[in-house]
Write a structure and sequence with these properties.
heterodimer; A: 453 residues; alpha/beta; Rossmann fold; Alpha-Beta Plaits; six-stranded parallel sheet; 32% helix; globular; B: 479 residues; mainly alpha; two-stranded antiparallel sheet; 21 helices
């Protein structure tokens, strides 16, 4: 595909590298000549120096034939303008990075009016990722569907699990929560399990559920020991705001420590449910006073990577049981930080980059199809796809699932009907406009009708 | 320095040269010449050696700019060293240094020769002599890149080191596709020239040989009288294709992209045609009295202007007898050369333009000491780094000329012969003046002097810096 990327900062260069390696034709535009040259020297991409909001520069970059325009400069407004110009000049799809929380409520309106295909907010993405990690500390991997309403979670079955040694069809005798297990990894094998499949210790099991159901499920199978009830956030930036908002709505006690008075005031005003502490997170006395030793989790979100890492190391020392999440912006010292063993590391820019790469992959996979989301899992052996059902899918619409002739390695994991999440059973029916999540070990599906025999 | 990667690419180059060496065998088969066996045996050996050497994948993929320069220099040296072997084995040029001179002259599209009589060469060897011009014209590594799946960052460093001009850019995002487009343009030009020449009455072999030499802007011919031995229409076709191959190939890409109007917005293209028109006009005026008709003077002036500015080096008459004005204009064109990104040599018109504009800026700066001004080319500001590289290139050019001149002076030839020998080899043109004039050749130079000229030719084709980097001690330090 032909992709134009405006802005060669961290996110821009990360996605340019990755997508160029994946074989796409990348043109990168930036006003900073040195930055453009650095990327062009290092990777097989074409660089243009200039402002991406200019229609002439975009035309030089070949916007007329471009499949996708990604605007990731440091300014929201410029990104939106780039996308608007790009769309006018003929780019098929446009993605903008919009990070200002003040635009968040209007974003859908902006998206529709400017014809944006997607917008990316690194801070929001980071907050969502952190919230997911805090919600299910036992989950190994979490992917989301239907704009975050449904998760695909992976966990490892342990000896203590009541589901260990139980066949899937008898699962309801052990757990009351109705979830659908769609993939089991056993050793090197990836299996789409049928009813008579028995789970054993060491199996890595993936299931699709809304977050509420997933919580109940984890509780019932005794995997919830890490469940977070309280969280201390150090640094009150945008990420902290989004995260706190999410955690509070999940019923987690949130304490935010921030050393800037104005930020404290602003966040206290917008988040009445949170305890906001005005003080320095690097002050041991203050941390002790605020119960760092007893909190379930600590998330360090200041703007200084070094401070975040040091605070996490300190927390690890005084409270080894807490779940630690550290925000690191620069990926230069990744390997060193990994060796420190301070829990999960979050890199908002990489996350945002990953989101866009996922979009490009699904775009490539779905050229001329109706795939909404696509995840490749287990190094590409399994695909989880989200489809939108249209009028012309008569063979699927209105037929009970047990009567649909499905292919062997396909499982329908979830039906989202008018925003309601339904775990499908034999009697469930799909209607027009529903979103359906399908997991398969076959690859190359482009349309929901491909799941039929 | 990532030696295993350099070794890997060099072996790939050998593989390709092995394949190239097999092509003259076809000529041998058709014309029933025995020398084909030598080419076949050598081709197979070289290919086997290259295959064996590239069988082991490089240990690491680290590849920086200096590796790019070193790889390109070594590739060209290796190509020339191997390419000279058939001349010696077939005993048609028995001395290896002579054969090397001839081969380098071919690969670098110079067209200078040490042969007093080129007509006794067998058709197979003649084919090889001209074919390497065609290969060298667009660049060997660019060719390899358009075919091999060399992915990763290093291909840009290779392309930049091998391509000509102050600023090397890509036409499309992928280096591989860019290389393919360039070769597509090159092959289109080649095929159309062969067809035109055949319509003008040449047989296929002659048309092919002449095309290799013209499109690659080399200058070898199979006749001692150069293009003088060919008919008038052939000379005119040659003029047209020489001029076309001196244009930046980006211009053809613009035409291909249906933006032909923008071609004449490229300042380099405009300056190129301006130089040609002024050259033709002034040479015609100065040689008018030597020829019976104005048309004949005009034809000779046009042919030589085109031949020298595109650094091809064909001749149709001995211009040694022309007045000094005409000769000096030709020497000026020898130094200037044609457009960057074409198959031609010389300093390149874009560099001359940047230089003139930099000079003007300096004058502005002297009269208005606080003025801030950018050098513009094609309506866009040229980066200070490019301006600096142009200045450095000119210094390197002058240094190379002076040092080569001093080294050649031991032969005891006159000033004109010695200086034009250096200028014509460094500009990849072919003929000089006086002792190396259009009717003369380079046979009289000593073995050592021939090696100096070999260096000049390679320096001219690779635009000096890759060879300097190769010889620079800092390149080979561990850190």
């Amino acid at each position: 595909m032909k992709i134009i990327i405006v802005g060669s900062g961290n996110v821009g260069s990360t996605i340019a590298k990755q997508l160029s390696v994946e074989g796409h034709n990348i043109t990168i535009i930036d006003t900073n000549e040195m930055a453009v040259r650095k990327i062009c020297d290092g990777w097989d991409v074409m660089g243009i120096v200039g402002t991406g909001a200019s229609i002439q520069i975009l035309k030089d970059a070949g916007v007329e034939e471009a499949d996708l325009l990604i605007a990731v400069t440091d300014s929201d407004e410029k990104n939106l303008l780039c996308c608007l110009m790009g769309k006018k000049a003929g780019a098929a799809h446009t993605i903008a990075r919009v990070r200002n929380p003040e635009y968040r409520d209007e974003i859908e309106l902006i998206k529709n009016d400017l014809g944006l295909s997607m917008f990316v907010n690194p801070e929001l993405a980071a907050a969502e990722e952190i919230a997911r990690l805090l919600r299910f500390p036992s989950a190994i991997e979490i992917d989301t569907f239907a704009r975050g309403r449904v998760d695909l979670l992976k966990f490892e079955v342990t000896k203590e699990c009541p589901i260990c040694g139980i066949a899937l069809k008898d699962l309801h005798t052990v757990v009351k929560t109705n979830v659908l297990i769609c993939i089991v990894e056993r050793g090197n094998k990836v299996i789409v399990p049928k009813g008579d499949f028995t789970l054993w210790e060491g199996d890595k099991v993936s299931f699709v559920a809304s977050s509420k159901k997933a919580t109940q499920f984890f509780k019932e199978i005794n995997l919830n020991q890490g469940r977070v009830r309280s969280c201390t956030i150090i640094g009150a930036g945008d990420t902290a705001f989004y995260l706190a908002q999410k955690l509070i709505s999940d019923g987690v006690e949130v304490k935010i420590i921030e050393r800037d008075k104005a930020r404290c005031d602003a966040i206290a005003e917008r988040l009445p449910g949170a305890v906001v502490i005005y003080g320095d997170g690097q002050d041991k006395g203050l941390l002790g006073e605020e119960g760092i030793k007893n909190t379930d989790s600590v998330v360090t979100l200041t703007n200084f990577d070094e401070a975040n890492v040091m605070m996490s190391i300190y927390c690890k020392k005084v409270n080894p049981k807490a779940k630690l999440i550290t925000k690191v912006h620069r990926s230069t010292y990744d390997d060193i930080i990994d060796d420190m063993n301070i829990g999960s590391i979050i890199n908002p820019k990489l996350l945002a980059g990953e989101d866009m790469i996922k979009y490009v992959r699904s775009m490539q996979n779905s050229l001329g199809s109706n795939i909404e989301t696509l995840y490749k899992m287990n190094s590409g052996r399994v695909e989880a796809l989200e489809f939108k059902v249209k009028e012309h899918h008569e063979k699927i619409v209105g037929v009970p699932l047990m009567d649909i002739p499905l292919r062997k390695d396909v499982i329908i994991c979830c039906i989202i009907h008018n925003g309601m999440i339904e775990t499908p059973g034999g009697q469930s029916k799909i209607s027009v406009g529903d979103t359906v999540i399908v997991v398969t070990t076959d690859t190359g599906f482009t349309d929901i009708s491909d799941i039929l025999m | 320095m990532n030696k295993s990667m350099i070794r890997y690419i060099l072996c790939k180059v050998l593989q390709f040269e092995g394949v190239f060496l097999l092509l003259p065998c076809i000529v041998s088969l058709i014309h029933k010449e025995k020398v084909g066996i030598i080419f076949f045996a050598l081709g197979v050996c070289v290919f086997a050696l290259g295959t064996f050497g590239s069988f082991f994948k490089p240990v690491s993929n680290v590849f920086y700019a200096r590796e790019g320069f070193v790889t390109v220099s070594l590739s060209w040296i290796l190509l020339s060293l191997v390419g000279a072997i058939p001349f010696v084995l077939t005993k048609e040029i028995p001395n290896y240094v002579d054969a090397l001179f001839e081969t380098v002259s071919g690969f670098t599209t110079t067209g200078s020769t040490i042969l007093t009589d080129v007509e006794y060469l067998s058709k197979t060897v003649q084919f090889w002599r001209c074919f390497i011009i065609w290969v060298g014209g667009m660049g060997v590594l660019v060719f390899i890149m358009s075919i091999l799946p060399l992915s990763g960052s290093y291909n840009m460093h290779l392309m930049r080191a091998e391509s000509t001009g102050a600023e090397v850019g890509k036409l499309v995002p992928k280096v591989k596709n860019t290389a393919k487009i360039l070769y597509g343009i090159y092959i289109t030009l080649s095929v159309s020239m062969v067809i035109s020449l055949m319509i003008a009455g040449l047989n296929f072999y002659d048309a092919l040989i002449l095309m290799f030499s013209t499109v690659g802007t080399g200058g070898f011919t199979r006749t001692n009288a150069s293009l003088g031995a060919f008919s008038h229409p052939v000379q005119i076709i040659t003029i047209v294709f020489m001029i076309m191959c001196g244009i930046n190939f980006n211009a053809y890409f613009l035409i291909f992209m249906r933006k032909p109007k923008e071609v004449f917005k490229i300042e380099e293209v405009r300056a190129y045609f301006l130089f040609i028109i002024l050259g033709v006009a002034s040479i015609t005026l100065s040689i008018r009295h030597l020829y019976p008709t104005l048309y004949e003077a005009f034809h000779k002036a046009t042919f030589h202007t085109a031949s020298i500015i595109t650094t091809t080096g064909f001749t149709i008459t001995d211009y040694e007898v022309w007045p000094s004005t005409a000769k000096f204009i030709l020497i000026f064109f020898t130094i200037v050369g044609a457009s960057a990104g074409s198959t031609a040599g010389g300093i390149k018109i874009s560099r001359i333009l940047i230089m003139i504009k930099t000079l003007k800026r300096e004058l502005d700066h002297l009269t208005h000491p606080r003025s801030v001004r950018k050098v513009n080319l094609n309506g866009q500001a040229v980066s200070e780094e490019t301006v600096k590289s142009v200045e450095a290139f000119l210094i390197a050019y002058v240094v190379t000329v002076i040092v080569s001149f001093l080294l050649l002076s031991v032969n005891g030839f006159d000033f004109t012969t010695t200086i034009t020998s250096v200028l014509t080899t460094l500009g990849n043109v072919g003929p000089g003046l006086a002792g190396v004039g259009p009717a003369q050749n380079f046979a009289a130079y000593s073995q050592f002097s021939k090696l100096v000229l070999v260096f000049d030719m390679l320096a001219g084709r690779l635009e000096i810096f890759p060879l300097f980097v190769l010889m620079y001690a800092g390149t080979w330090k561990r850190n």
